[in-house]
Queue: 4 jobs
Job 1
Amino acid sequence: MSEEQIKNSRTEHSRSLERQFNERIERDEKIEPKDWMPEKYRKTHIRQISQHAHSEIVGMLPEGNWITRAPSLRRKVALLAKVQDEAGHGLYLYSACETLGISRDELYEQLHTGKAKYSSIFNYPALTWADMGAIGWLVDGAAIINQVPLCNTSYGPYARAMIRVCKEESFHQRQGFEIMLKLANGTQEQKEMAQDALNRWWWPSLMMLGPTDDKSVHTEQSMKWKLKRKTNDELRQQFIDQTVPQADVLGLTIPDPDLKWNEERKSYDFGKIDWDEFWQVVKGHGPMNKERMKARVGAWERGEWVRDAAMAHAEKKQARKEKQAV
Ligand SMILES: [Fe+2]
Ligand SMILES: [Fe+2]
């Protein structure tokens, strides 16, 4: 065979692999770590799953900050459980990501050097106890909308991780809503605190569902691979339609004068989102970007002796085993 013929047959082979791969996705079959996959599919999944894992881990910071100041033992237990859940979500997702051939160290390195992104919402500060309510209700609420379709995503390890994650997210959303309900029915001051938290978290929660479809560069390919089942705008509309009646139950006002029920569309029309603010935060200029990174890098550095000790212990154990085998 000439060089040209070898090249052609290789191209033909990879085309046929890609065809089979697309057919499997079409049939809703799960793709597993050892299966053949296009390089772009692998890279896109590393990006998305790691971004998701980083968001879970950085997402612990605004709430972790309030654990010691929770107003009662019951609230403290619930908040502590929630923050621990987020750590667990991060760990499942890092593990799922590692099955695509990237190491945990590389993933952390990408986060710590600012190369990897995480959800923009965690770059806002949690100023009062009511923020614990608003974060659970709105941020975890938006996360559920985003994540439920991912339980059916095409990459097996990601889809399976999401099933458990989603169950826990619904507890997070309810504990947040319950905090809001208590405050909204409390003293005038507590009600104002709840309203203030809603005012500050509403718009960032809408932004959290990602840029509008015409500005979202990855949507089309991700829809084809069933990595995404709904577009950002569809998810955002679903979140708004679901959340407005909940605000009514709380007796709080959504901070959007243009919010109005559209009888024809059977959905809410809503006001303009400040996308400049979104892009500023994504680029690292949000109110808390620097603090969040400092906290993560600090935790990594302070944990060095634990990692070293664990490695030394593992090596000793291995050496002992080898000695016994001889
Ligand atoms: Fe989570
Ligand atoms: Fe959560």
Job 2
Amino acid sequence: MVDSLKKPSSFDEIRPGVKRPAKETLLTPRFYTTDFEEMAKMDLSGNEDELRAIIEEFRVDYNRTHFVRDERFDRSWDDLPAETRQIFIEFLESSCTSEFSGFLLYKELSRKLKDKNPLLAEGFNLLSRDEARHAGFLNKAMADFGLSLDLGFLTQNHNYTFFKPKFIFYSVYLSEKIGYWRYIKIFRHLEANPEHRIYPIFHFFDNWCQDENRHGDFFDALMRSQPQLLNDFRAKLWCRFFLLAVFATMYLRDRASKFYGILGMNSRDFDIEVIQETNKTSGRIFPIILDVDHPKFFPLLDKCAAGYLKILASAESPTPTFLKKIQNLPTIASMGFNLLRLYLIKPIDMTKQAGIVH
Ligand SMILES: [Fe+2]
Ligand SMILES: [Fe+2]
């Protein structure tokens, strides 16, 4: 057991056994804050029945006994090669940080709305319960490798991004739904290829992803109660923006990750499938979705990813920082241009699709 706590030496610790959180970049998980007053004043009557039904389902708490560490965890992981351990710890940290970011936002919302909008407050409180479970489960997994995150330290030292409530809805809805598709696809891949299941946490991804799916449905119902967020020209522009931002973030980050390789997956194929599915799911609520089948869509994302990898490689070089910044300018400009070209690909208007009521 003591041996299994051997740490990979390349990680920096804030104190013994506690990992210094990974450096924040544009692509690492964000922490959010919002305008709580505006959220509190929100009138939910337009879709209150559906919201109540979803909250009732949260109360049932299908996964109350799901996140229990069983005997499968009770062994040493020393047989994992050092590089695999390192890549896997990075995956656990990034997942734990993003689950914890959900917890913090939902918990804060439930606290601030408690007296002013009790229905919404209860919904957020139940969402935060699930995210706390997810983050805690991942942090315990990190501890199996001799490192964990100090979530209190993370709360105080992470930067918070302010988003107006409507932007919280668009982006958090998408991250819940993309989370669902990511977890279920990894789960199914490992069911079919169990020899690549390097650690038992992946057994838990099936019921886990159902939590994320329900969370997404909660935001779907919330947005339906505010039709002004979905039915005008600006809504179409913003939905298009957030779809591209969420897809591009995942796509670029995953091109730089070796994690999928250790699970025997092709990360590009995986991302393409996740993007196609999440895009399709979003069409149930967003007035537009992206034309991800457009022949230029993924090739343009590949060009952006190539630029991102070039910038990452330059970060490793001994060139002075100011010189690197100058050297990277053309790459950044071309990434920006390609993202703009992606944004300008004609989207699919869901309000015109037969049989879809918005
Ligand atoms: Fe979660
Ligand atoms: Fe979630």
Job 3
Amino acid sequence: MYAQMVKSTGQGVKPREEMSPQERAFQDRIDADQKIEPKDWMPDAYRKTLIRQIGQHAHSEIVGQLPEGNWITRAPTLERKAILLAKVQDEAGHGLYLYCAAETLGVSRDELTQDLLSGRMKYSSIFNYPTLTWADMGAVGWLVDGAAIMNQVPLQRTSYGPYSRAMIRICKEESFHQRQGYDIMMKMANGSDAQKKMAQDALNRFWYPSLMMFGPSDKESVHSAQSMAWKIKINTNDELRQKFVDQTVPQAELLGLSIPDPDLRWNEERGHYDFSEPDWTEFFDVLRGAGPCNTDRMAARRNAWDDGAWFRDGLMAHAEKKRARAAAAKTAAE
Ligand SMILES: [Fe+2]
Ligand SMILES: [Fe+2]
């Protein structure tokens, strides 16, 4: 989902004849489906694009805990609370794997966090929408994690080794997230009239923001070509969006809920659903910071960072003492 925010670092694919021998060898390895590892030579733009993409992905996992964390204390049963807690903890874990993957490219987690807090780096626009009812926990798991899987499954084949390996583990956990969301929707959609209404309302509010998670249309995506040649991006935004719609419509039918799009219909000729584009003006507004929850989300992250300062300082002090003790023991032994 996070490819949506990656800005262009180049102007299209460099023709082979203009590549240096080093660049050519690098591209050959990618074309042969070999992974690039941290100590391998890589073009600066490849490194920069990856740091941006993995960093924004990591931030999205971390900020993504907030809309659901909001409901842990209000889950309707102990079982639902335990499930939601586990799901939100998974997202923290995803953030950690991804920060670690980004660190192998020479950027520290502290630097990435500072870039998030200063607004230089973004996170997925979806997490700037509020979660108003318990049914939203269903819609988020079903649609938001569903869209995340759609984006992340192809990234298991991405050319950068640490990123691709992180994705393999993350995708396994994401399918549990998606199922728990769908399970909540199933319960609500088959519940009382009021519950069914809540489920429909959640779908109405999360449908278009979920479609936005794949990023703007390919026509406007300037960075796609180079990222695809480098196998940082595997599918285009429009391909993934179509796949998501095709997969989700029958799931909504099974729930007895309707997708809030009057123009949605099966296109026999294309073998796909036709559907309405989301409002891209809204997408860019939210990305710029004008979404309903941008301010809250950033304030929560800033507080978490400030509140954790004593703990980070404590860890550093402990590490320093340990190092000094080891040095003293070494001197004594000599
Ligand atoms: Fe995740
Ligand atoms: Fe997830």
Job 4
Amino acid sequence: MNVQNSGHGPVIREMRITPIAITDPPLLNAAGLHAPYALRTIVELETADGIVGVSEIPGNESTDEALRLAEHIVVGKDVYQLGRLQQELEVRFGKDTSKDRGDAPWDQRRLVHVFSALEVACLDIIGKLVNRPVADLLGGRMRDAVPFAAYLFFKYEGAGGKLGFSVDPNAIGWAAARQQQAIDPEGIVAQARAMCEAYGFQSIKLKGGAFAPDIEVACMHALHQEFGEAMPLRFDPNAIWKPETGLKYGREMESILEYLEDPVRGQENMAWLRQKLRTPLATNMCTTSFDEIPASIALGSEDIILSDHHFWGGLRASMELARLCTTFGRQLSMHSNSHLGISLAAMVHLGAALPHLPYALDTHYPWQSEEIIAGGPLKFQDGEVPVPAGPGLGVDLDRDALARLHQQYLDCGLKMRNDEIEMQKIHPKWTFKKTRW
Ligand SMILES: [Mg+2]
């Protein structure tokens, strides 16, 4: 039967692409400073029978344009035809290469984002059709709740959004704490205490690369002193260290780290350092695509791959990556960017279905103060998110919030992420350097 344009059943009738802007505090990283708003794109697919599937990906004008260009490929497809959809998108846009990933601290490849958005929305629809959660479509849940880590940032004072570098005097608890400046060990420990108290996290990650290594490593030692041996700690300077810096400070943190994330740039440098440190090395920057797996294995560049379904081409691709990791002695965990509840729900379904989950996953979720899913933010219990109940992703779009955050996107004027430009508003001579220390 030709299901293309058959006009009934699980055939996609309409695709809606809505860019949104969400309030984001002034967080620091190796690439500069977070803008007052982070961008996301919400994709809705609606079938001929009126079933709607949703997904969320990092916002970028170029990805939105690619999604619009893909519309004629998507509309008329059966939601089960994911292989065919991917193949036609590859023909239309060309396969992403590892070169497309480039040297930026975040991923701007187009096809992986486009396919991830479409795949997750299709799986949401399929889940609703067969009355099963997405985790069941990925092989079934291995666990009922998925652990996440506290994700700490150096930051300037401020709430982001309209408040910018000002704070909301009425905020309390974590909502107040996340507005505080954190540029030294005292500030980082206070941030960690407040976040762990609010969410119950049982692992801690600090995003570094913002200050000189001795300051940042002092923060890791302060966290170790504050939380003790039982709290697993990770540190991620976003590949901004030279190999000798990675070796010096990697050794200084050897006794306190669960893993060290992207201390240096490139698979060769990671492999060199990995030979010299006992601490496991993790990456979301040196091995970032299936194309890079052969070199990763040949060189031995990392112990842990931090997958991200938005960057690896969807949830099923991430399950395939898990199998490769098992085969080649890697562990798999998860990377994150500023995101809302649709992405979190997808991450939880994937985390629930992964055969092995040795590490708590990354999430930026506590930094966000807005939401687009009905019923408000997903709840954490002791640092874990239970798999959402209900078929598909188990979350529904709050259409009023979607309209409001889309208006915020139009008003804020941002079209893509550029942390360097934001940093230059504070420090005009600051420039991004791939390797700084
Ligand atoms: Mg990272």
